[in-house]
Design a protein that fits this description.
Elements (H helix, E strand, L loop, with lengths): L1 E4 L8 E4 L21 H7 L7 E4 L4 E5 L5 E6 L2 H10 L4 H6 L11 H6 L12
Parallel strand pairs: 1-3
Antiparallel strand pairs: 1-2, 3-4, 4-5
Length: 127
Protein backbone atom coordinates (compact mmCIF):
# COMPACT_ATOMS: atom_id res chain seq x y z
CA UNK A 1 0.00 0.00 0.00
CA UNK A 2 1.34 3.42 -0.95
CA UNK A 3 0.67 6.70 0.80
CA UNK A 4 -0.35 9.88 -0.89
CA UNK A 5 0.39 13.00 1.09
CA UNK A 6 -0.98 16.39 0.26
CA UNK A 7 0.69 18.72 2.75
CA UNK A 8 -0.56 22.26 2.78
CA UNK A 9 0.39 25.06 5.12
CA UNK A 10 1.76 22.71 7.77
CA UNK A 11 -1.02 20.14 7.41
CA UNK A 12 -0.66 16.73 5.80
CA UNK A 13 -3.51 14.79 4.27
CA UNK A 14 -2.49 11.15 3.97
CA UNK A 15 -4.57 8.58 2.11
CA UNK A 16 -3.77 5.01 1.10
CA UNK A 17 -3.20 4.06 -2.51
CA UNK A 18 -2.67 0.60 -3.92
CA UNK A 19 0.62 0.08 -5.73
CA UNK A 20 0.69 -0.68 -9.43
CA UNK A 21 3.35 -2.72 -11.16
CA UNK A 22 3.56 -0.50 -14.23
CA UNK A 23 6.56 1.82 -14.36
CA UNK A 24 6.51 5.35 -15.77
CA UNK A 25 9.25 7.81 -16.53
CA UNK A 26 8.88 11.46 -15.60
CA UNK A 27 6.64 13.41 -17.94
CA UNK A 28 8.46 15.26 -20.68
CA UNK A 29 7.55 18.97 -20.83
CA UNK A 30 7.04 18.65 -24.59
CA UNK A 31 4.47 15.86 -24.27
CA UNK A 32 1.38 18.05 -24.16
CA UNK A 33 -0.95 15.05 -24.55
CA UNK A 34 -0.29 14.00 -20.95
CA UNK A 35 -1.66 17.28 -19.57
CA UNK A 36 -5.23 16.00 -19.54
CA UNK A 37 -4.53 12.37 -18.69
CA UNK A 38 -6.63 11.16 -15.77
CA UNK A 39 -4.75 11.77 -12.54
CA UNK A 40 -5.45 8.22 -11.33
CA UNK A 41 -4.00 6.74 -14.52
CA UNK A 42 -0.88 8.81 -13.95
CA UNK A 43 -0.62 7.68 -10.32
CA UNK A 44 -1.13 4.03 -11.23
CA UNK A 45 1.59 4.18 -13.86
CA UNK A 46 4.20 5.73 -11.57
CA UNK A 47 7.12 3.62 -10.38
CA UNK A 48 6.77 3.10 -6.63
CA UNK A 49 8.81 1.74 -3.75
CA UNK A 50 6.96 -0.62 -1.37
CA UNK A 51 8.10 1.50 1.59
CA UNK A 52 7.81 4.82 -0.21
CA UNK A 53 5.10 7.41 -0.64
CA UNK A 54 3.39 9.30 -3.43
CA UNK A 55 3.29 12.95 -2.47
CA UNK A 56 1.61 15.95 -4.05
CA UNK A 57 3.88 18.94 -3.52
CA UNK A 58 2.83 22.53 -3.11
CA UNK A 59 4.27 23.07 -6.60
CA UNK A 60 1.67 20.76 -8.19
CA UNK A 61 4.13 17.95 -8.89
CA UNK A 62 3.14 14.43 -7.84
CA UNK A 63 6.26 12.52 -6.78
CA UNK A 64 6.91 8.87 -5.98
CA UNK A 65 9.53 9.02 -3.23
CA UNK A 66 11.63 6.25 -1.66
CA UNK A 67 12.43 6.22 2.08
CA UNK A 68 15.96 7.45 1.22
CA UNK A 69 14.25 10.49 -0.42
CA UNK A 70 15.10 9.44 -3.98
CA UNK A 71 12.40 10.51 -6.43
CA UNK A 72 11.54 7.44 -8.51
CA UNK A 73 9.05 9.21 -10.75
CA UNK A 74 7.17 12.46 -11.00
CA UNK A 75 4.17 13.79 -12.85
CA UNK A 76 3.39 17.45 -13.36
CA UNK A 77 -0.31 17.95 -12.65
CA UNK A 78 -2.36 20.76 -14.09
CA UNK A 79 -4.83 22.52 -11.81
CA UNK A 80 -7.78 20.47 -13.04
CA UNK A 81 -5.96 17.23 -12.13
CA UNK A 82 -4.95 18.63 -8.73
CA UNK A 83 -8.52 19.67 -7.92
CA UNK A 84 -9.85 16.28 -9.04
CA UNK A 85 -7.41 14.56 -6.69
CA UNK A 86 -8.36 16.82 -3.78
CA UNK A 87 -12.10 16.50 -4.43
CA UNK A 88 -12.02 12.72 -4.67
CA UNK A 89 -11.01 12.48 -1.02
CA UNK A 90 -13.79 14.75 0.15
CA UNK A 91 -14.37 18.37 -0.68
CA UNK A 92 -11.87 20.36 1.36
CA UNK A 93 -12.15 24.11 0.84
CA UNK A 94 -8.81 24.73 2.60
CA UNK A 95 -6.92 22.40 0.24
CA UNK A 96 -8.83 23.63 -2.82
CA UNK A 97 -7.95 27.23 -1.97
CA UNK A 98 -4.31 26.37 -1.18
CA UNK A 99 -3.88 24.74 -4.60
CA UNK A 100 -5.94 27.36 -6.48
CA UNK A 101 -3.99 28.41 -9.57
CA UNK A 102 -1.19 25.89 -8.97
CA UNK A 103 0.02 24.19 -12.14
CA UNK A 104 2.80 21.60 -11.95
CA UNK A 105 3.48 22.14 -15.64
CA UNK A 106 5.02 25.48 -14.67
CA UNK A 107 7.87 23.65 -12.90
CA UNK A 108 10.78 23.36 -15.33
CA UNK A 109 13.78 23.20 -12.98
CA UNK A 110 15.07 19.60 -13.00
CA UNK A 111 16.50 19.98 -9.48
CA UNK A 112 13.08 20.98 -8.12
CA UNK A 113 11.36 18.16 -10.01
CA UNK A 114 13.72 15.52 -8.64
CA UNK A 115 13.89 16.77 -5.06
CA UNK A 116 10.83 18.81 -4.19
CA UNK A 117 10.36 20.37 -0.77
CA UNK A 118 11.33 18.09 2.13
CA UNK A 119 9.24 20.26 4.47
CA UNK A 120 6.14 18.83 2.79
CA UNK A 121 6.86 15.18 3.61
CA UNK A 122 5.28 13.33 6.53
CA UNK A 123 7.12 13.76 9.82
CA UNK A 124 9.89 11.20 10.19
CA UNK A 125 9.79 10.04 6.56
CA UNK A 126 13.28 9.57 5.18
CA UNK A 127 15.02 9.45 8.56
Amino acid sequence: MQLLTMPVLGLSLVVGLFAATTMALPTNEKDISLQETDVYDLMSAMAKDNNGIVSLGADGVLRSICPNLTVLAYEKLNNHQIQKLINSYGRDEHLSKAFEGVNGNDVVDQEQLMHGDKDFLPLGFGE
